[in-house]
Amino acid sequence: MSKLTRREFLVTSAAAAAATGMGANAFAAGPGAAGADSIKYPIEQGATLRVLRWKRFVQGDEDLWNANIKKFTELTGVAVRTDSEGWEDVRPKSAVAANVGSGPDIVLGWFDDPQQYPTKLVDMTDLADSLGKRYGGWYDVCRKYGTKDGKWIALPLGVIGNALVYRESQIKAAGFDAIPKDTAGFLKLCQALKAKDTPVGFALGKAVGDANNWAHWLLWSHGGKLVDKSGKVAINSPETRAALEYAKQLYATFVPGTLSWQDPSNNKAYLDGQISMTANGISVYYAAKNSPDPKLQEIGKDTLHAHFPIGPVGKPSELMQITQMMVFKHTKYPNAAKAFVQFMFEPDQYNPWMKASIGYVSQSLKAYEKNPIWTEDPKATVYRDSASLMLDHGHEGPLGQASAACMADYVVVDMVAEAASGAKTVQQAIDRAADRAKRYYKA
Fold first, then answer.
1. What are the tens digits of pLDDT across the range 160-192?
2. Helix or strand or coil: residue 322?
3. Topology of 48-161+320-389 in CATH?
4. How far apart are CA 147 and CA 441, in angstroms?
5. What CATH number was assigned to the domain covering residues 163-319+409-438?
6. Burial class of residue 22, CB neighbours in 10 A (0-12, 13-18, 19+)
C-alpha cells in the first residue's frame, strides 16, 4: 500500500486481505485486482465528516463500523462523527438535509431515496467504476438503485437480507418438515401453526424494511404490480385482488398487533416466543445465539431460515432492504467524503465488517460472495444471495422520485394492511392505493 499522509488518501487493492486474517485467496477479485484502477482523492485541509446512518440491529455491525472509522481517521487525519437514527427516521432527516442544503455529509439511506434528490448528490461514477472493476462487478439490482441517467448518484453499501425466520420444532409439530415452496402450501403451514397456538407474525405497520419487504413479495408473487413498464399505475388488476384475498387468509393466522409493528417489533415477538415464524434479517438469530439467557440460546438452536415461497407468478419475487451511501453536494469536503466511501468498500474494512455482523448486511459487489461468513454457519447461507435474488421495488416500472415517494408513503403496505385486516374491502384498498400512487406517478 502506498504511504498515506494526513492530506492524501490512496487505497489500492494490493492489500485486499492483509487486515482480514482470512487469506488473500479467499477474496481474490479477479483480473484488475492489482490496484491499477484505484482512485486518489486529495483530501481537503482541515476536513471533517458527519455521517448519518441507521441504528444497528447487530452489535458487531456497530463495533466494526466504529473500528473502521477509527482506522480511517488514523490514516487520513479526518475526524468522522456518526449519528445513528431509527430506521424510520433516516429517510425524513436525509430529505431535510437535501432540501435545506446542510446537515450530514454522507447518509446511509434506504432503497431509492437518492432518486428523490439526484441533483443534490455528488457524482460517484469514477469510484463506482473502480470498485466494480476490482471486486467482481455490481449486482444488477444495485446498479439500478445506484444510478440515474447513466451516473452513479449513490453506492449501495449492501443488502440487509430478508428471509423467513422460523422455529424448526414448531414447524414439525404442525406437520411440516420444511417451509413449502409454493404459496398455497405456505398458507396451509401458517394455518396449521395457528391451530397449534403457535401463530406467525408479519409487520403491517410503518416498518421501513420488514413491512415493505413481505408486502411487496405478497403482491408480486401473485403477479400484481404498482405500475407498468411505462410508469402507469396498474395496481387495479385481478392479480392484485388475488394477492389481497390471499393476504386476508394469511392475516387470520397472525398474532394480534401486527398492524402497528415497526421494524423491531417482530424481533421482540419472536424472541419472546409469541410467534413461530416471521420475516427478518439474520439479527433475530444473532440475538438468540449470542444471548447469555439459556432460553434464548435454545431459540437460536431451533431457528432456521428460508426463502419466501413461489407464488402463481412462477418465479422468485422478493424485495429486500438495500442501503445506499450518498454524498451531498453541500459537503465542504467532497474528496474526503469520497475517500471515506471508498475506504469502507475496500476488503480490509468490508470483509471484517460483514463477518462481525454475521452477514446481517450482504454484499453489493460480487467478489464478497466468497466471505466465509456465508458458509461457516449454514444458517447464514440463505442471506448470501440477497442481491442476486431480489427485485427492486419499482419492479417493472422505473425507479425515481415517484417510486421513492410511494415507498416512503407505504402505499403497498397500507393497501395490504387495510385489505388483510378487513378495515377496507379488497377493492376499496386497491382504489385507495391507486389514487395515492397517481399523486406521484403522472404518466
1. 999 999 999 999 999 999 999 999 999 999 999
2. strand
3. D-Maltodextrin-Binding Protein; domain 2 (3.40.190)
4. 20
5. 3.40.190.10
6. middle
